[in-house]
Amino acid sequence: MRPQSPRVSGVRASAASFFRGCGEAVVLTLVCVSPWALGGVEPGAVFCLFVGVAVLLALWAARMLCDGALTWEHSPVGLGLVGLFLFGVLQLVPLPPQILGWVSPTTASLADQLLPKIPEQLPFDGGTAVAPLPAGATISLHPAATRAALVRLLAVSLLFAAVRNNAASPAALRRLAVVAIVNGFSLALFAIVQFFAAPPNTVYWTYPVLNNNFGPFINHDHFPFFLNLCVGLGGGLLLALRHSRGGDAGGQGDKGVRAWLARPLELLNTPAALWACLALALMASSVALSMSRGGILSLVGALVAFLAVRLVRAGRVFRPEAGLLIGAAAFGLLVWFGLDPVKARLGTMWQGAALEDPRWPLWWDALHAVKDFPFFGTGYGTFLDVDLMYSTHLEDLSEGWENAHNDYLEALVEGGAVRLLLSLLVIALVYRQGLRALRRFKGRSAYGLVLGTLFAFTTVVLHSFVDFGLHVQAIAVLTTVVAAHLCALGAPGGEFRTAAALGSARPSTGTGVFRFGGLAPLAGAVILLALGGILCVQGWRWARAYSLEVAARDQVGQTDADGDDHRLALLEAAAQTTPEQARLHLLAGQAYWDAYEARLALVEQEDRARAAVQTILAAAPLPGRPPLPGLPVGVSSVAAAAKSRLARGYLTPALRHYLLARDLDPLTPKPHVRIAAGLEWLGH
Fold it and tell me: What is the distance between the alpha carbons of residues 617 and 627, in angstroms, rounded to a whole number?
């Protein structure tokens, strides 16, 4: 290959550095904006996050082309995420009945009981309903839900790989910590103001929610999930500021820091550290004010664990003056806001009220499911179906729990022992890389940043025992970025990861770094763009279907026939946009069924009115006019024709949607009931 001139190499290096900087800006934007969009749980917000990941991948592809080589840094955590993804793909592979019965006998038995051997024939030559992802031949009980979960896992894996290979360095981690502490402070301030000023169960003073919300999150347990991550990153930034004042995270050479750390009043002379302490105090008080016991315990548990490890390894903890100042300020804020509700909430843990928590029967039922699906699980994203099948705590079987409120137990149910072991392996590998980074940066300012990042990751690990925060996109994004930084800084050569090195057109290769030339960068760029396109298309489909569903929901109050037909058209369009969603088919089927029954009642009412008129005319005909003996036959034929039209226009689509919902998700009870009600119209 012909060598390039220094000028060309410099231009390419500058371009690669520019794309790397743009990628980091995209990551920080995702971290900042996602929690404000109701935690990123709405399909529209998910679509925007997918677009952000796609943009990040496009910038990675552009940098790859500028570099002229495909450079890949080996990451055990990345391989673990790939393993989780491939295992989910395995759950979607159609298997012969004999193999399925051997791999997952309970799944094969359920398919035999709940799904017909021969598809039902719809009336009026409507054919058969063919589902795009039918259940019955896969390990997953609900293949469409598993595929949706895999798309989200793919987005997380790609985000991890992009940050790990392009946007992770000590300087980038410092910028992430600054953004996290500013964003966390803003979220805490907003949440406290909304808590006292807005009506209950209302977000942004406008949008009603079903749960006890706090801040912009629709569930009060998710707010501390995100804020604890910000607290950890902010604490790491404070430790880094301590080192910049002349001390280190290890407690050696702290003559320069003793002047302001040993005497807290001297913090007035260090505005950055002072503002960091005040922000951390407000964030800690907001976590307590959220009334989330899991959030409070995970924050305290992570702090106790880190202090214990520090005491065992170094014989002493960090100088406590700044921590005491933060704790005192947080306690003072709680006293000002009102400490009694927090005390009452925490008191439930040792007064016996915690034993009445609905999580306990939920977990007990889930453990029964584990016995029937021990190794390969029920399929990613299928916990709601499992809860409906095994529930002993639900009064209404039309609604269940979508999550187990314990991510480890949910992993065991949905993926069996294989997925749980893979998940624990990923967590252990992140800790291993983080501890390597601590050893590598000991005595430097980055030590505090890495320690704070490990603290943030630990709060997620602990909180996941009692909640499902990682299913919230904003929390998943920040957790993924945190893990990517830990893995990058703990990898061989992590201490040399700088903006210049990451943006260089010819990065130096080392242990675990693979570099491929030729057509490899072009192929890699095409693959990245294709993966980003897949995410965007899938996110758009979800967002479009949800917007149509919301529009149809707004038509519920319309009593005229035109409004009813418009609602049916919207639900039909939503079901066609995402035909793999059983829930939309169920909504559309119910709407068609209700329309059929309402119109049938009108036809029968008109038929009775005609019959009554004919009876009167037959009994007392008008003067000069003979009786009309043939009229009853005419009235009956009119009614029969009208009923046939209604059955063709409304009952047939209703049954089609119910059959699709049943075939996509056979564990949902309602389609079976409706199919049984319309059994006389079906063939086979």
Answer: 7
The first and second tokens of residue 356, run together, are 């009445």
Cα–Cα–Cα angle for 611, 615, 617, nearest 5°?
115
**How far, in Å, CA of 381 to CA of 353, rounded?**
30
User: Which residues share a beta bridge with 217?
Assistant: 214
Say which DSSP state 647 is in: I
Q: To the nearest 10°, the Cα dihedral for 186, 540, 553, 667?
A: -100
The number of CA neighbours under 13 Å toward the Cβ of 520 is 11
Residue reference for tokens 């008129």? 613
d(CA 58, CA 166): 12
How far is the C-alpha of 72 from the C-alpha of 307, rounded, in Å? Answer: 36
pTM: 0.90
- The 10 Å Cβ neighbour count of residue 605 is 10
Residue type, 533: G
Rounded to the nearest angstrom, the gap between the alpha carbon of residue 635 and the centroid of all alpha carbons in its chain is 57
DSSP classification of residue 122: P
* Residue 38 predicted with pLDDT over 50: yes
Give residue-wise pLDDT tens across range 362-403: 899 999 999 999 999 999 999 999 988 888 876 665 677 889
To the nearest 10°, the Cα dihedral for 210, 214, 220, 223?
140
Return the sign of the alpha-carbon dihedral for residues 38, 39, 42, 46. positive
Instruction: Count Cβ atoms within 10 A of the Cβ of residue 29 and give its class: 0-12 exposed, 13-18 middle, 19 or more buried.
Output: middle
Dig out the tokens for 562 from the structure: 């035109």
